[in-house]
Write the structure tokens for this entry.
Amino acid sequence: MTSPRRVVPRSLAVAAAAAAACSVIGAPQAGAEAGTNVGYYTINKSASTYKSITVNNLFPTSVDDSTAALSVTGSGAYKMPFPVWVYNLKMSTMNVSSNGNIQFWTNTDRWDNTCLPSAFGDATGNSGRALAVFWDDLYIDRSKGDGVFTQTTGAAGSRQFTIAWQGRFYGNRTMTAKASVTFFENSKNIKMSYGTGNNANATIGIQLSTTPPKNIWTQYSCNPGSPTVKAGQVLTFVHRT
Ligand SMILES: [Ca+2]
Ligand SMILES: [Ca+2]
């Protein structure tokens, strides 16, 4: 699936979008209508050295904007080892964007990140569960060893499934971007880990929906003025009921 191609330089488009759409976010926040039936997330910050992954690459050729479909019935790198908790549902399929997000409802490769809650580019206005791990205009350069990699660790019943974006910024190919998300087989928590910073033009957070009555999301940062991440930063989204 392709986005409409840019008609203005990306730097200008991104600046305009940031100015128009995003306010400064002082602290992680949950949507106001968090209900007990789906729960919500709060964010715990910690530090741990980022571990690069170099197996199970989802994009065998260099890509700018693309998505890969994973499922529990998939094969090879595209197989999820277990259904992953997102809010209060176990999801058996996901669309992984090369631009640093995972969608469980839409399937868009859009590069121009918006603040949450985002419709993630669905023209009908539908939206759903999605993770913005490091949603920005990333570029995967296979000639430099980039990729979006997956890895499963641990024993059955307590496995961990990690998806790692290890690429660079479209607008500055000399600047690398590394971030990963880990799902836990035995927990609804979701862990995001960072190997680089520079999230001033990115969105980080989790959303359930953009529409009431379940208008729920938890955003850590969105574009300039937001809290930053740095190499070794870990954000654990702790599920609450
Ligand atoms: Ca891109
Ligand atoms: Ca951006």
Summary: Residues 1-36 have pLDDT under 50 and may be disordered.
